[in-house]
Amino acid sequence: MKRILLVVLAALLALSCVACGTKDKEEDINKKSEGVMTYAEYEAAALESAVTIEAYIQAKQSWWDGKGTFYTQDGDGAYFLYELPCTEEEYAKLAIGTKIKVSGTKTAWAGEVEIIDATWEILEGNYIAEAKDVTALLGTEDLIKSQNMFVSFKGMTVEASKDASGADVPYLYKWDGSGQDGDDLYFNVSLNGQTYTFTVESYLCSKDTAVYQAVKNLKVGDKIDLEGFLYWYEGVNPHITEVTPAA
């Protein structure tokens, strides 16, 4: 009996240590170096002002002509790094989860807040965020507070788009249907009577990815769950990275 009790106590102690370790890790995610902004400070900073942040790479959109574009995040918010100067070799080293320090200019384009003209360095640390369920925030002013975060939408209904001939279709190549296979996919989904336009951004998810093929297989009326990054373009325009049948 005593031996069993000791085993149970040891197990509980081990679980306690694991919990403590997880808590410490979560706290470390938002720990900033001297002179680095918290997400709240970054959010409050004026557009066209200098900012310095630390965050973790969550997705790599593209590399072209010595510049890479990234979705990054810490435990409080997200940062879109647009055309970060880097070589192709450096871009390859900036793997998902990598912690980086970035100094640049906070700006906005068509409602999308981003950091441009930046310098950067890799720091020790690794973090990959879980998707934040923002379904209930659709159609509210609070949704933009999660801009650029990795998010999910649950129980959405696929709605029809109109192609060039006026026919109802489940998706379009490019926003106006003028594109072809390999271009961005645009599709409409609804919740509680409101319709939203979501995108599979082809630089982020090419035509060979599972999500691109999943959207091409959608039918009007399908119920789906989605994950992606809460991008903004003249309003909410999520860049979707996963589509699955609604649970």
Summarize the structure.
This protein is α+β, with helices and mostly antiparallel strands.
Your description of this structure?
The chain folds into 2 domains: 39-126, Beta Barrel (OB fold (Dihydrolipoamide Acetyltransferase, E2P)); 132-245, Nucleic acid-binding proteins (OB fold (Dihydrolipoamide Acetyltransferase, E2P)), CATH 2.40.50.140. It has helices at 2-29, 39-44, 88-93, 210-216, and strands at residues 49-64, 67-73, 78-85, 98-109, 112-126, 132-133, 150-159, 161-162, 168-169, 172-173, 185-191, 194-200, 223-229, 239-245. By secondary structure, it is of the alpha+beta class. It is built from 4 helices and 14 strands. The strands form 3 sheets. Strands 6, 7, 10, 11, 12, 13 and 14 form a 7-stranded mixed β-sheet that branches. Mean pLDDT is 91; it is low at 1-24.
Question: Strand fraction band?
Answer: 35-45%
What share of residues is helical? 10-25%
End-to-end C-alpha gap: 45 Å
Task: List low-confidence stretches.
Answer: 1-24
Task: From the alpha carbons, calculate the radius of gyration and give it in angstroms.
Answer: 21 Å
Q: Give me the number of helical elements.
A: 4
Q: Which structural class is indicated by helix and strand composition?
A: alpha+beta
How many domains would you count in the coordinates? 2
The main β sheet shows up as: 7 strands, mixed
What's the CATH class label of the largest domain?
Answer: Mainly Beta
User: What is the CATH topology descriptor of the largest domain?
Assistant: OB fold (Dihydrolipoamide Acetyltransferase, E2P)
CATH superfamily of the largest domain: Nucleic acid-binding proteins
Can you name the CATH architecture of the largest domain? Answer: Beta Barrel
Note the overall shape.
globular
Order of helices and strands: HHEEEHEEEEEEEEEHEE
User: What's the pLDDT, averaged over the residues?
Assistant: 91
Total DSSP E strands: 14
